[in-house]
Amino acid sequence: MKRFKRNNWRARSTGRLAAVLLASVLLTACGGVTEEMLAARESAIAKMEQGDYEEAVAVFNDLVEEAKKVTEFELDVLKYRAEAEFLLEDYEAAVHTYRTLIEVDKALPEYYYFAAIAMARDGQLEEALSLLTSGKELDKKSEAAGFFEATMALAEGYEAGGQAEAARDVYQELIDGGHGSTAIYNRLMLMAMNAGDYEEALKTAAKGLILTDGLAMQELKFNEAVCYEYLGDFSKALELFRAYAAEYGTDERVAHEIAFLETR
Fold first, then answer.
1. Which of 17, 24, 48, 156 gives 20 to 30 Å between its CA and that of 4?
2. Are 147 and 109 in contact (CB under 8 A)?
3. How would you write the chain as a 3-class SS string?
4. 8 A C-beta contact, residue 4 and residue 190
5. Distance CA 226, CA 91 (A)
6. CA nearest neighbour of 108 among 80, 77, 131, 85
7. What mean pLDDT is reported for the chain?
8. 244: burial class by Cβ within 10 Å (0-12, 13-18, 19+)?
């Protein structure tokens, strides 16, 4: 049984989301913030960078409890804490922190989007949809940080839950809204392949391959070759796997595919 190469958006999204979250953090300290508090925050950030998310959350918790009032410093700490909780995969805690930010700061769309991602990862899709919708109501142009990631997380959650039609609707909504990407087309392609509709999968791949983003171009090209192999067009599949190997290098799986196809 052939293995399709799945879009690794989910695997890479941790790093991508972390970058988005970090970009949203305010680094301004206000009155009443001591040197010890600043040093503790920097220490917790360092622990996050080292992957010690649990200890980072503990330090951020102490800093929040120590704060006498809501300041830019506390908001900064809360944002970092939410990120650490997310990376720790404590999604309920992350959502709680984002809801706190909405209450003590302002109802920013990115807070809703980041919370929606956490809920989708936790399998709570109705809540994820509600949070995503709230974010979109504040973000009419869908430009705020986290919009794309939250929408993709919801769609992938629907896929994982066997709700293929709901997933397709969300992906199509992204495309119709001008947010089409190779990652989206690869997901749609995989859905068609899993349904055994390789002709439809190739049509979908063709739409993704004309794009220039690098989110899932490699996966699209691999899966395109797999489709031709399943359709019995071995010469075309061999051509594409050879081109793939030339562009991205080879591994045991690609080498096996090429060796197999050379005997057809």
1. 17
2. yes
3. CCCCCCCCHHHHHHHHHHHHHHHCCCCCCCCCCCHHHHHHHHHHHHHHHCCCHHHHHHHHHHHHHHCCCCCHHHHHHHHHHHHHHHHCCCHHHHHHHHHHHHHHCCCCHHHHHHHHHHHHHCCCHHHHHHHHHHHHHHCCCCCCCCHHHHHHHHHHHHHHCCCHHHHHHHHHHHHHCCCCCHHHHHHHHHHHHHCCCHHHHHHHHHHHHCCCCCCCHHHHHHHHHHHHHHCCCHHHHHHHHHHHHHHHCCCHHHHHHHHHHHCC
4. yes
5. 36
6. 131
7. 90
8. buried
d(CA 195, CA 128): 26
Q: Which residue has the tokens 């908001």?
A: 75
Looking up tokens 């930010």, which residue turns up?
A: 101
Please report, as a single letter, which amino acid is at residue 67: A
Residues in the chain: 264
The answer, yes or no, to whether residue 37 has pLDDT greater than 50, is yes
